[in-house]
Amino acid sequence: MSRTDLSTRVAVVSGASAGIGEAVARHLVASGAPTVLNARRAARIEQLASDLGSDRCAVAAGDAAEQSTVDAMLDTARDRFERDADLVVVNAGRGLNAGVLGSDDAQWESMIRVNLLGAMRLMRAAAHRMLADIEARGSWEHHPHDIIVLGSVVGRHVSPFSGAYGTTKFAVHAAVEALRREICGRGVRVTVIEPAVVVSEFQDVAGYADAMVDGLYEKFGPLLEPADVAEAIGWVAAQPARVHIGELLIRPTRQDYP
Predict the structure, then answer these.
(1) What is the pLDDT of residue 158?
(2) What pTM value is reported for the model?
(3) b or e along 122-131 (b: 16 or more beta carbons within 10 Å of the residue's beta carbon)?
(4) Angle at the Cα of 44 (from 39 to 46), degrees rounded to 5?
(5) Residue 89's beta-bridge partner residues?
(6) Among 1, 27, 7, which residue's Cα sits nearest to residue 234?
(7) Pairing of the two strands 35-37 and 57-59
(8) Residues labelled catalytic
(9) N-term to C-term CA, the chain
């Protein structure tokens, strides 16, 4: 089966300043894909773009939950690389320690805003542009169009230690399937990636205690690294246009549940 050369694609990655998003950006650029980097931390993605090569990177800094930032990501791809993005990785998001009873409810709205509403805004805006691109091409069969969304294993198997966060990802999984069913018949692939524990700054931001993280290492280690998820996303995007990997759950080998 012939794979798609990623150098023929134009990519957008939200939440690219660290962790999985940064690893995805590095992987796509190394594979030859011109890539737009988004994150709130402008200095971080400016430095990443400089490291990766300004000829292959563009920056659209801002809050990924804002429609204006979503539009800026996609406009930057078109303006800088002279065509609309056909590979959009919806990655921006955050975690929150504890479940419905124990989590800090003052953080619920901000988490829902970026994890769900921001993801849906980027999914919808990307879908509109990809459908228009397919119509202009006259066919979808010779050039893939991908919207790849970061879910989580706890969005499929909601866990009490991160139940509030898992609830947002459960909703994201539903949005991905809803959009897939809405547009797959017109040639756009919509995929949810469901990683388990990935070693990154995610744990600190979510407020997970060091003892808990150490326990995950002891029970399930070695744990996933961001590059593992990035390579899986690259593999999904490299499938021929006729092949759609709709869901991909990735666990450390020793992780039995969730």
Answers:
(1) 85
(2) 0.96
(3) bbbbbbebbb
(4) 90
(5) 13, 148
(6) 27
(7) parallel
(8) 165
(9) 33
Q: Which two tokens stand for residue 110?
A: 């901000």
> What is the spatial distance between Cα 81 and Cα 99, in angstroms, rounded to a whole number?
43
Q: Which two tokens stand for residue 108?
A: 């619920």
> How many angstroms separate the most distant Cα atoms in the chain?
56
- How far is Cα of residue 84 from the mean position of the Cα atoms in its chain? 18
CA distance 169 to 26: 24
- What whole-number distance in Å separates Cα of residue 182 and Cα of residue 179? 5
| Three-state secondary structure string covering the chain | CCCCCHHHCCEEECCCCCHHHHHHHHHHHHCCCCEEECCCCHHHHHHHHHHHCCCCEEECCCCCCCHHHHHHHHHHHHHHHCCCCCEEEECCCCCCCCCCCCCCHHHHHHHHHHHHHHHHHHHHHHHHHHHHHHHHHCCCCCCCCEEEEECCHHHHCCCHHHHHHHHHHHHHHHHHHHHHHHHHHHCCEEEEEEECCECCCHHHHHCCCHHHHHHHHHHHCCCECHHHHHHHHHHHHCCCCCCCCCEEEECCCCCCCC
Q: Can you tell me the distance from the alpha carbon of 123 to that of 64, in angstroms, rounded to the nearest whole number?
A: 11
**For the chain, which residues score pLDDT lower than 50?**
none
pLDDT for the residue 3: 83
- What is the rounded CA–CA span in Å between residue 178 and residue 226? 27
Nearest to 127 by CA among 168, 74, 81, 91: 74
Is beta strand 11-13 parallel, antiparallel or unpaired with respect to 146-150?
unpaired
The predicted structure's pLDDT at residue 216: 83
